[in-house]
Amino acid sequence: MISEVTGIRRIRMLYLQLLYRCNFECLHCFHGTRLQHADAFTADEAINLLALMRDQYGTEAVTLLGGEPFVYRDLTQVVQYAKRDLGLRVEICTNGYRIERRLTEIAPDLDLLRVSLEGIGSTNDHIRKFGSYRSALSALEIAQRLGVRSGATMTVTSRNIEEVLPLARVLQGYGVEQLKLHCLRPVGNAASESGRDILAEPTLLFADADKQDPARAAVPSE
C-alpha cells in the first residue's frame, strides 16, 4: 500500500507510536488532549506491523514512541519480538519516569534508550513533571550500568534555551552519546493558554547559537 501510493519501496526506520496514554502532561506536548485517550496498538497488531514492515519494506530499526512507551502493558513482548525474532535495532523514546524495573527487564534487547529532558532541575520539572529530572537521570544511570546506549532529547523554548549546554555537560557524566534539540511547535499543549509563555522566538534561538557552539550540545551517535 505504501509503495503504491508514494512510490517508496524501502523504509529503514519505523517510528511506531504504541499508545497515546502518558503519565505526564508536559507544557509543550504536541499531542495535547489526545493524551487523555486510551487508544493503543494491541501486542498482536504491533508485532504484525513490525513483521510486515521488515518483510515488505526492508525495515531495519524501530523507534517505539507514545504517549509513554513504558506504561504500555506489552512493551517487553514487543521489544523482544522486534529484536529476537526480527533482528531489528530497537530504540525507545521515554520520559524516564520510574522505569527502572522494566528497563532492567528489556535491557538485553534494547539498542538505545532516549530520554526527554527540558533543562536542569526545576526548569525541567516545571515543563514536564515534579521529580522527573531526578527520575530521568536515575534511568540514564541504570542504562549505563546495564550497558544500554543512551541519548536524550530537548525541546528548546524560552524557558530553557540558556540550559542547552549545561544540560549537555550533565548528560556526558551519564554516558549519553547524543542530545537532539527539537524546535517547539505551537500545537497541542504549546498552543493552549498555559503553554504559550514557553514559546521561544526564532531570533532568540539563533542569537544564542551565534554566541555558543551548538555542536558541543549535539554529538551524532552514528
Report on this structure:
This protein is an alpha/beta fold and 222 residues long. It has helices at residues 2-6, 43-57, 75-85, 100-106, 122-127, 132-146, 164-172, 202-211, and strands at 13-17, 61-65, 89-94, 112-116, 150-156, 179-183. A 6-stranded parallel sheet has the order 1-2-3-4-5-6. Strand 3 (89-94), helix 4 and strand 4 (112-116) form a beta-alpha-beta unit. Helix 2 (43-57) runs parallel beside helix 3. The longest helix has 15 residues, at 43-57. It is globular. The relative contact order is 0.13. Mean pLDDT is 84; it is low at 200-222.
Report the strand count.
6
Please outline the major beta sheet: 6 strands, parallel
Query: What's the helical proportion of residues?
Result: 25-40%
SSE ordering: HEHEHEHEHHEHEH
Beta-strand fraction estimate: 5-15%
Structural class: alpha/beta
Q: Would you identify the regions where 5 or more consecutive residues have pLDDT less than 50?
A: 200-222
How are the elements arranged and paired?
Elements: H1 2-6, E1 13-17, H2 43-57, E2 61-65, H3 75-85, E3 89-94, H4 100-106, E4 112-116, H5 122-127, H6 132-146, E5 150-156, H7 164-172, E6 179-183, H8 202-211
Parallel strand pairs: 1-2, 2-3, 3-4, 4-5, 5-6
Helix pairs in contact: 2-3
Summarize the structure.
The chain has helices spanning 2-6, 43-57, 75-85, 100-106, 122-127, 132-146, 164-172, 202-211, and strands spanning 13-17, 61-65, 89-94, 112-116, 150-156, 179-183.
